[in-house]
Amino acid sequence: MLALSLLAGLLYFAKKESIPGTIMTKPLLSALFIIAALLGPHGDQKYFVLVLTGLLFCLVGDIFLIFFSSKKLFMAGLVSFLTGHVLYSIAFFTMASPGTMSLIIATLCLVISGRVFVWLRPHLEMMTIPVIAYVVIISVMVIGAASLIGNGQLDYTGRALAFCGAILFYFSDIFVARHRFVKKEYMNRLIGLPIYYAAQFMIAYSVHFF
What is the pTM of this model? Predict the structure, then answer.
C-alpha cells in the first residue's frame, strides 16, 4: 500500500512538474524495491548481490533523473541505469540456460531495438553514442532474462519475475527516451513510471526464489 500511495503521489507531482514533490516521493519509492530484495530469503548469494547492487545503481539513477532537464544529470542517470542493467545481465546469465526461447526473444529484441533507435536517431544529436550503448545493454539484459527462464532447474516464479521485470523495464525506458528526446508530455510518465516500478519490484522479488 505504501508503494502504491507513493506512486500515486509521484504521478501527481510529475503532472505538476514539481521537483520538490518528486524529491519527497521518488527516492523513498525507489528505496522500497531495495527493501523488497533485502526482506526475505535469498539462497544464491551471487545472484542476490548482483541484483541488489543493480537496484542500488537504479536508485541513484532515479535521483539523478529527478532533474530531468539537466543534460549532465541526465547523463549521470543514464550511466547509473546502464550500470544497473549490466549487473542485472550478469546476474541473469550466471543462472541462464539458453535455448529456443532465448533465441526467439533475442531476435525480437534486436528487431525492436533497431526500430527504436531509428525512431530516436533524428533527435539524439550528441547523445547518439550513449544511447546506442544503452540500447545494446538493455537488449542484452532482456536476452539474459530470456535465457534465465529457460533454466528448468530453477523455481518458475523466480524465473518469471526476472523475465517479466526485464521486459517491463525495457518498455519503461522507451517512454523515458520519448520524454527526453521526442515529445515531453505527461503520458510518458503516466505509463512509464508504473511499469518501471513494477519491473523493479519483480526483479527485486526474484531473489527470494533462487
Answer: 0.94
DSSP the chain: -HHHHHHHHHHHHHHHT-HHHHHHHHHHHHHHHHHHHHSS----HHHHHHHHHHHHHHHHHHHHGGGTT-HHHHHHHHHHHHHHHHHHHHHHHHT----HHHHHHHHHHHHHHHHHHHHHHHHHGGGHHHHHHHHHHHHHHHHHHHHHHT-TTS-HHHHHHHHHHHHHHHHHHHHHHIIIII---HHHHHHHHHHHHHHHHHHHHHGGG-
Mean pLDDT of 72-87: 93
pLDDT digits (tens, 9 = 90+) for 2-53: 999 999 999 999 999 999 999 999 999 999 999 999 998 888 999 999 999 9
